[in-house]
Amino acid sequence: MARRVDLPKSNLRERRRKRRFLLVALSVALALMAWAAIAGSTWLPFLRIHSVDVVGTKTVQPQDVVSAAQSQLYGGYLHLFARSNILLYPKDAIKQRLLTQFPMFQSVDVHAEHFNTLGVTVVERQPVALWCGLSVATSSSCFLVDQGGIVYAPAVVYSGDAYQRFYGSVMGDALPQQFLEASQFHSLTTLVGALEQKLGSRAQSIVVDSDHDVHVAFGNSFGLIFALDTASGDVFDRLGLALASDVFTAHPLTDFEYLDLRFGDKLYYRLRSAAPAPKTATSTATSTVTSTVHT
């Protein structure tokens, strides 16, 4: 009859298991120590940003920019790595914070000047016009507009006609906002300036309505209407042809309410009720001048 003999339990497998556990534990401990050493080194004073130098501000106090930049340097990534470390500082976050907090900044450059100093160079927008709301009737305050059609800051109360005043819808819910595309705005401001010289009168308001028609009211109470997408040269030529016509040579501009240039070679105008009707005008309130302008 077969009998079973139990041999003494071998300790070899147990020793191998303990050895693997110790190796894993040692590896983890070394990794943690390495991470702790690296994290700790990011907090060393000679590698941390202690000051911020600001260059380029004109309307903003440099200390306000310093405070906004430093607000992004507090604390640490994962509570381990110092955000103020000159090698790890959040460059993009600082730039975005400054552009958001200060809409008057056109551009912001953030860079390390040396191990303890962060440099911030800003370029402020230059105002070329005012945006005063959706319409003249509902306007309550105005905002500065730069050459790219960016509405960026409240305007102080200006006396006289320091800037052209624009009205119409803008894109965006908070400053900075876009009024027209940059190319459209540049063309429109240039055209209005040329029209002012042509008519010898300052534009009091430039309204761009929801149909992208432009309504310009001049200081002599004369109004001009044209389509925003019409080439500036065509608008200027049509105005010149209208002013050379019999009806316009027979009356001063103050006798006209408006001239409408939106319909190709048909130029519509309206005389004020107090003005005598020209011999060539029809009996209706609105008459036309046929020009030879081709689009």
Supply the key terms.
3 domains; alpha+beta; disordered C terminus; three-stranded mixed beta sheet; Ubiquitin-like (UB roll); Rossmann fold; 295 residues; elongated; 28% helix
Question: What overall geometry do the principal axes of the alpha carbons give?
Answer: elongated
Q: Order of SSEs, N→C?
A: HEHEEHEEEEEEEHEEEHHEEE
CATH architecture of the largest domain: 3-Layer(aba) Sandwich
Cα-to-Cα separation, first versus last residue: 118 Å
Largest sheet entry: 11 strands, mixed
Helix content: 25-40%
Kindly state the number of beta strands. 16
Radius of gyration (Å): 35 Å
Average predicted local confidence, pLDDT = 88
How would you classify the helix and strand content by structural class? alpha+beta
Report the CATH topology name of the largest domain: Rossmann fold
Into how many domains do the coordinates divide? 3
What spatial order of strands do you see in the largest sheet?
10-8-7-6-9-11-12-13-14-15-16
- Assess the beta-strand content as a share of residues: 25-35%
The number of helices is 6
Unreliable stretches covering 5 or more consecutive residues: 279-285, 291-295
